[in-house]
Structure formats: structure tokens, C-alpha cells
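Do me a favour: review this protein, sequence plus C-alpha cells, and tell me how the chain folds. Record follows.
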Amino acid sequence: MPGRPSLAGRSLLPVLRPTSGMGGGGSALKVCADHRGGINWLSLSPDGQRLLTGSEDGTARLWSTADGQCCALLQGHESYVTFCQLEDEAAFTCSADCTIRKWDVLTGQCLQVFRGHTSIVNRILVANNQLFSSSYDRTARAWNVDKGQVSWEFRGHRNCVLTLAYLASWDLPGAPCMEEAMAGGLLVTGSTDGTAKVWQVASGCCHQTLRGHTGAVLCLVLDTPSHTAFTGSTDATIRAWDILSGEQLRVFREHQGSVICLERLERTEETYRAIQPPMSCLRTTAPGDELVNRHVYSGSADRTVKCWLADTGERVRTFAAHGHSVSALKYHAGTLFTGSGDARARAFDAQSGALRRVFRGHAFIINCIQVGAPALSRAPCLFTGARASPVASASEGKWEVRSRAYPGAENPLAETSPSVGLGNRSSRRCSGRRRPEAERGPCWGGGTAGRALQRPPHAPRPQVHGQVLYTASHDGTLRLWGVRGLPRSPPPRPGTPKRSLSRLFNNKVGCAAAAPLQPT
């Protein structure tokens, strides 16, 4: 079998800092340049106090959201970090070295190494005391979080598995004949073979195969109450599926390029909570909290974002103004934030589609966007990141992905961009370094542990106004931006039905979510 991708023999990426002409539209408050390679992913802790980044330099770093200071360096991977997820007491990272690692967020020490995959690990998801992973080896796996042992190996895809989503057993219908099969919940995977599969976690069996796409499935998201999966593909369509029956419900057409990302809200309009990192367990919702007249936002290689009515597939509006493929989306309080291959983040009025602000300063593609609250102010913040491996070709209207799969590995997508340099690492031991206590920001305290917190009766609803925008990029920097002056979301009209919000799911080439239709 070919060797694994390694950091050895590759040059370090230069750290590019903003010049005097790069800040228009949104001014950078702080630039953090500790990573020595591009940042591939970022994840926010459930209490909003810490941020985890995974990088091309083979390391992950923990940051304080209060002051942007690096709190700990997580070393041990032998190749670049593809994805990361931050939980209350542990951080999880996966890598092109075929392993997953679990870290103590207080000491920075590696607690567990998960071995078994035979190729690049693309994504991980921690849910219901289990760890799920997807890989270029065409499998997904379920692991015991504490023991590091494989519980199930999900085989059936004919090409690499990209995306993951989990539906807990208590969110599934309670038909007696299905109780045993559904006891462990359902895992949904999307693959470059053009299919999505639904797996019974308790048995490891394939429950349904969702066929219909004619291209790779790049992103997916679940709507928990309706048991509906939305998938985006290189065939330029979004499809809605009943994951229990496998029926294709509707097709969303009109994009002229690959659908790279989808967006859905993460909290109800009536509940304030610390936002959890991507790829975590789906939030459960009470009966009757189904999304009503919900919107689905999709970002594409055609340089646009489209807003759709989820129940009918009707396009509501189009958000233009991007100079490259749209790679990341986040809806929050009436504002739609986007990240693009043109290295800019943008803020749109979600109702009118008007462009409100452009954030300039990064030199490479924006990867992912998160909304959270700083540890001290508890005001909402937006976290974004920039991808290092996929390169979008705007001239051809296609999303071209340069896979770092080792030589000889099957690459289902075009490899057209120049190689990105990586750096040697002095140590490959599983170790961690912490900053002295005096140098660290106040990011180690307790918090809400991701619980849904009911706001006081007269507390104002969280607004975009006064937020801080956090961006991480392939230029190796983490940037903090001021976003004062953005429009506020209008309050819901009396009698408006409750609207539930689900988890955001992302993959190397996309992310996914849905938002409710605002009353008019």
C-alpha cells in the first residue's frame, strides 16, 4: 500500500499579514499568526470559551475567544490535520496520517489514538458518546470514545466518504418493529460515488441508499423532526430525502455549478445558547417544533448563494457579488455570512439579499464560519475559517478539489491546482504544550456545557449588531473583525409558530444548514 502523506520535505507556508489596502469594509481588530501552515478547520467549544484550529502544519491549537491568545499546542499527527471538533473536556482531531486523536483541553496531552482507517480521515463527529469518522478508504467507522476501539465499520460506498450526520434514537419514530434496529440511532454518510447511505448504528447495517445524484455528494444536513436529509452535489442540485423510507422528496435546481455548502439555523428564535462546534450531535427538538416555511441556503461554484423554500424547492432569492466559488455559509439573526474562494467574507441582509459588508484581509479561501459568544462579553461572535486543500476555479465555473491522497489513491475530483507546501515538524510524539498561566486568556473556566438556556423573559434577543467576526485562513492567520452596524433581524410577529434549528454539518468541500422563512 502506498505510504501516507507526510509533512517531511515540504516547505513552510509564509505567514501573510494584511497591507494598508486590504482592510476596507471590515477592519481587523487582531491578527493571530501562530500556525505555520494554512488552517483547514476550526471548531468552537460548547461553552463558547475556546476555539480549536487544525492546520496544514500537522498541529492543532486551542485559542481563547476572549482575547484571541493561543492556549495550547496539540502535537502528534504525522501529516496535516483535516478536521477537528471541540467538546467540553476533550478535543478531537483527524488527519491525513489515517488516525484520529483525542486530547485533554486542560493539559494539551493526547489521551487516545484511534487507528484503523487505511487512508486520509476526512471528517469526524462526536455524538451520543460515540465517535464517527469518514475516510478516503471508502468506509465510515463508529468508535468507542473512551477505549479507542472500532465498534462498527460501515462498508458499501464505492468511493471516498466525505460527509457525516447523526440522528439519535430518541428523534426516531417509535414503531415496535423498528425499536431494536434504531436503538443506536442512524448515521448518514455522503460519498463521491454519488450516493448517500443511511446506516443503523446498533447493527452496522445499511438501512437505505439514497440514489439520484449524478455527481459527488459534497454536503448534507438533517432536519431532525421531519427525518429529512438535504444533500448537495457536483451535479449542481440539492435533493431532499426521507431517510427512513429512502424516498427522494424533491430536487432543487438552478445552480450552474457544484453545490458546495448548505446552511441551516442552529438555535430556536426563543432560545439563547452557546453554539456548539460543527459536526457535533444533532440538537433534539420537542414535538411540534418542526421548521415551518423554512429556508435552505446553498452556496455554489457558480459564485452565488441561493435561498430556497425547503418544502417546495422554490427559489426565493439569489445572493451574488462573490468573485469566486462560495465555500461557507452561516445564517444568524437576519444576516447571512458567506465565505468565498476570493478570500473574502461577506455579510448579506437575509431578507432583501443586499450586500452589507465585505471583510478583506485574508490571502486564501475561507473555509468555515461559526457563530458564538466571547468568553467574557457573551455577545454573539462569528467564527470562520479558510480551507487549504480545495481550490475553486471561477473561470470554468467548477469546484476543483486538489486531493492530498497519497500517490496511487483514487481521486474522484479534478486535481488541477499547484501543490501547497507543508513544513517539517521537529517532534512527532503525542504531546502538548501549554502556555504559562499568566500568558493565557480566561478560557479554561466552566460554562453552559452546550445546554440550551432559556433567556430571561425580558432579555433582548441576540443580534448581529456588535458581534466580532473570527476568520481563519490558508494564510495561516486567525483574524478578529469588528462588525458594528449590520442590520438587526426584525422580531417575530405574535402567533408565529415555533421554529426549531438543527446542527450545522460540514465536510472538506462544503457545509450544510437551513433557516426559517421570516414573516412578511
Q: What stands out?
A: The radius of gyration is 21 Å. Residues 8-24, 266-292, 387-466, 491-520 have pLDDT under 50 and may be disordered. The first strand starts at residue 28 and ends at 32. The CA atoms of residues 83 and 131 lie 13 Å apart.
